[in-house]
Design a protein that fits this description.
Keywords: DNA-binding, Transcription, Transcription regulation. Pfam families: DUF6597, HTH_18. GO terms for molecular function: DNA-binding transcription factor activity; sequence-specific DNA binding. There is one protein chain. The protein is an alpha+beta fold. It has two domains: about 1-155, Jelly Rolls (Sandwich), CATH 2.60.120.10; about 160-270, Arc Repressor Mutant, subunit A, CATH 1.10.10. It is built from twelve helices and ten strands. Strands 1-2-9-4-7-10 form a six-stranded antiparallel β-sheet. A four-stranded antiparallel β-sheet has the order 3-8-5-6.
Length: about 270
Amino acid sequence: MMQFVKTSPVSMGKFIRCFYSVFNAVAGEQIMHHRLPDGTLDLVFNLGDPVAISGNGSDFYNMPGVSLTGLYRDRRFLSYQGRVHLVGVVFQPGAANLFVQQALADWSASTADASGALGTDVYLWREQMAELSSESEKHRLLESHLMKILSKSFGRDRDMEKVLHAVQKIHDLKGHIQIENLQRECLMSPRSFRRMFSERVGMGAKQYAEIIRVKAFCANPHSLSEGYSEQLYDLGFTDHAHFNRAFRKITGTSPTAYLQGLQPLAARFTRLI
């Protein structure tokens, strides 16, 4: 059975959303995991057997041993087989560029070897984690390494506070927000706001808000119960047809089909951010 451990950063909560580990105590059969987009970048270390990723559920390729991934606009499929042990870092949307030192839009819809952005030391980090017994120890080790990287870049991004504010406002309202209001709160022109958000989050604010709206629905355990029209209205969907179109665009399937087939592991990932 797959185990899932999630911890919060000790001192880097402004820049890191959480740490997580996925592993099985005994090597098991192949598991397919349908993961929704988070709208953020993950740094993932593989301490186990190869894990494959696909955009369509049929064409898979193995993820690198240390990957930068997760900045997708729609769902991805992960295939686990054998001994699974992944350790991940979920960056705060709007802060990941401080670590990779480039526009987040460049990482959109890609899974790449993290050493290209963070240096080959990330493979040394993986070796160090393999020697630690608990998942929380692994998470704290990663936080200490990332803190050193951050100390070299912090203060160079003058617009970061505006982006973090905009992202938090989107989450507070579960994606039901007028982007024009965010622009005004940031005291920016529409064009400047769009460019700033896209460069630092990796996608437009409207698209990011749509992902958060769909995930807010999926995270509600009563989403398929009778009379959830009020929930859709609270999330800003005008009717079921409007919601179904948005849901299918991000998940690739209908709300009923997705939630009825939701596996425990996929549900845990839905609540990462």
